[in-house]
């Protein structure tokens, strides 16, 4: 005759088959975001260490993930940048400059609007919303199917084989997209200024060149590189910690997008403050 297992210890109720009550954790309370933030920071450190530790077996997966980012994000980035550059800094921003009767400074305005803000922001938003969600859903599906646990049992280094290639792919391709997006943004704004505000191409280029600095382009590249790394860590962390079946994967993807957007906003503000503080000349339109 089979005997029933009696579990001792504090639990809910009494009698046979009672399991111990789960211990409360920070993640179950109102400050669960602190535990998740700490987990993302730890994952970042582990990824960086694993990235520089041989063997470097992540090459093929890195190429595959880079191509995934290109397929999913290239056209949306290009379309969104062209539309926003025409409407936001081109027409709306131009109307503000025209109100001040300084349409001859539209080229210098493009430095702040396109290089410093618009191109980088759209790049981060599109990559997070298209490529980041694809990565998060892929890892989340593997998690709920216990594929990640099976790989870990087989001795596979999940950080090196899964996180490092996605981390590098999102960081690199975000930078590549950024320079293409920046060019589209500048051209779109110039066309809007020429057709709507009757600014000449020569005047736009002249004022653009007088305000262009190396600091702007350096901070531009640094910003989007970090955007890619932030998106990669957030989406990989949420995907690898998904739970609750397919609905849990959907929640993880939604949370990943929200967290990535929020961190990008905060980081963008901090880096712009650093740029303006270190190079005060970038705060004026010359």
TrEMBL record:
Listed PANTHER family: ABC TRANSPORTER PERMEASE PROTEIN-RELATED, PROTEIN TRIGALACTOSYLDIACYLGLYCEROL 1, CHLOROPLASTIC
Can you name one GO molecular function term for this protein?
A: phospholipid transporter activity
Which protein, by its recorded name, is this? ABC transporter permease
GO CC annotation, single: ATP-binding cassette (ABC) transporter complex
Asked whether the keyword Chaperone is assigned, the reply is no
Asked whether the UniProt record includes Amino-acid biosynthesis among its keywords, one would answer no
User: Which keywords does UniProt give here?
Assistant: Membrane, Transmembrane, Transmembrane helix
Q: Which residues cross the membrane?
A: 73-101, 121-141, 162-180, 217-240, 252-270
Chain spans, region Disordered: 1-24
The record's section on InterPro entries has: Permease_MalE (IPR030802)
Q: Kindly name one Pfam family recorded for this protein.
A: MlaE
User: Domain of life, per the record?
Assistant: Bacteria
């Amino acid at each position: 005759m089979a005997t029933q297992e009696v579990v001792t210890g504090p639990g809910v109720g009494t009698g046979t088959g009672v399991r111990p009550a789960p211990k409360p954790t920070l993640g179950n309370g109102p400050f669960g975001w602190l535990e998740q933030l700490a987990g993302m920071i730890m994952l970042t450190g582990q990824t960086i260490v694993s990235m520089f530790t041989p063997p470097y077996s992540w090459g093929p997966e890195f190429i595959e993930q880079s191509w995934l980012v290109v397929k999913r994000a290239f056209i949306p980035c290009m379309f969104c940048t062209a539309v926003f550059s025409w409407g936001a800094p081109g027409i709306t921003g131009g109307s503000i400059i025209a109100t001040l009767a300084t349409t001859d400074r539209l080229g210098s305005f493009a430095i702040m609007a396109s290089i410093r803000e618009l191109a980088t922001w759209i790049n981060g938003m599109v990559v997070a919303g298209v490529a980041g969600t694809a990565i998060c859903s892929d890892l989340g599906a593997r998690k709920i199917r216990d594929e990640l646990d099976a790989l870990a049992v087989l001795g596979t280094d999940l950080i090196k084989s899964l996180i490092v290639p996605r981390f590098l792919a999102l960081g690199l391709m975000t930078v590549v997209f950024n320079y293409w997006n920046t060019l589209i943004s500048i051209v779109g704004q110039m066309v809007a200024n020429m057709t709507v505000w009757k600014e000449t191409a020569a005047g736009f280029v002249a004022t653009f060149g007088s305000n262009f600095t190396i600091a702007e382009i350096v901070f531009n590249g640094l910003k989007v590189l970090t955007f890619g790394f932030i998106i990669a860590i957030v989406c990989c962390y949420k995907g690898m910690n998904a739970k609750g079946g397919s609905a849990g994967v959907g929640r993880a993807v939604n949370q990943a997008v929200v967290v990535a957007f929020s961190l990008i906003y905060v980081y963008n503000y901090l880096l712009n403050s650093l740029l303006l503080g270190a190079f005060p000349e970038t705060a004026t339109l010359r």
